[in-house]
TrEMBL record:
This is Pirin N-terminal domain-containing protein. Keywords: Iron, Metal-binding. Its cofactor is Fe cation. One of its GO terms (molecular function) is metal ion binding. It comes from the Bacteria.
């Protein structure tokens, strides 16, 4: 039987926005797009110089962004007039689709800023829909609590818990699994073709293989996941069905062809991106 792990990767140091230091886990030389996931960044620092400049106004077209905070506070403002602050345990979802300009800026001057930003592709048929945005505090997430672990359902559904973010065409699932020392649990497969697990705290045993903080593994679609922890640990599970369409990316624009990218740039330069 094939092993559940089909690849092991580590992110690379990167900077984005106005110089925010982060780790790029997906969309780096060792791990390109993992259809439908375009990018995964982890930002984690208690040095305000690493994050205080934030992500000033910038455009997007053609995909969805999802920001999930473990610690700290980040404010969102966009060209559609939306504003909100995502705090620890909360998630923010933005469908850029045909176009939006937004800023994400820290709402703190010191302390730990820790979280993720995920870029999720949209199929061609949905890339030019109207933009949308929503903010979900921690109490809006689905939650499964047991004696020595908890599962926070950010997107999709797992067991009887439903996350606030839904992209049913891709069967998108995002779980934050938090384990106490000596925890054991089994995560059943939902059979999505793309399935990834990232260790953001501690270390875990996954079907007998030891994984350290900062490791991302690709998983096969079928096997259930046997997780064990000897210490406090946290992992994020991402799963989704590939879109299977060409990906043409230029910075903050992700379309299906270079011609569509050129059109996005023209629309942005002409002030039409958010029309």
């Amino acid at each position: 039987m094939a092993h559940v792990i089909t690849g092991r990767y580590r992110g690379i140091p990167a900077q984005d926005g106005a110089g925010v230091k982060l780790t790029r886990v997906i969309n780096q030389p060792q791990l390109r797009h993992q259809d439908p996931f375009l990018m995964l960044d982890e930002f984690r620092s208690d040095n305000p110089n690493d994050y205080i400049a934030g992500f000033p106004p910038h455009p997007h077209r053609g995909f969805v962004t999802l920001t999930y905070m473990l610690a700290g506070r980040m404010e969102h403002k966009d060209s559609n007039g939306n504003t909100g602050v995502v705090e620890a345990g909360g998630a923010q979802w933005m469908k850029a689709a045909r176009g939006i300009i937004h800023a994400e800026m820290p709402k703190q001057e010191d302390g730990l800023m820790w979280g993720f930003q995920l870029w999720l592709n949209l199929p061609a048929a949905r890339k030019m829909e109207a933009a949308d945005w929503a903010d979900y505090p921690q109490h809006k997430l689905g939650l499964i609590e047991r004696d020595n672990y908890e599962i926070r359902v950010i997107a999709g559904s797992y067991e009887d818990a439903v996350g606030p973010i839904q992209q049913p065409e891709q069967e998108f699932l995002m779980l934050d699994v938090r384990l106490q020392p000596q925890a054991e649990l089994e995560l059943s497969s939902q059979q999505q073709q793309t399935r990834l697990l990232y260790v953001y705290q501690g270390q875990v045993s996954l079907n007998g293989s030891q994984l350290e903080r900062g490791e991302l593994v690709r998983l096969n679609a079928t096997d259930n996941l046997q997780l064990q922890s000897s210490e406090l640990a946290g992992v994020v599970l991402l799963a989704g069905q590939p879109i299977g369409e060409p990906i043409s990316q230029y910075g903050p624009f992700v379309m299906n062809s270079p011609a569509e990218i050129e059109q996005a740039i023209r629309d942005y330069q002409a002030g039409r991106l958010t029309g």
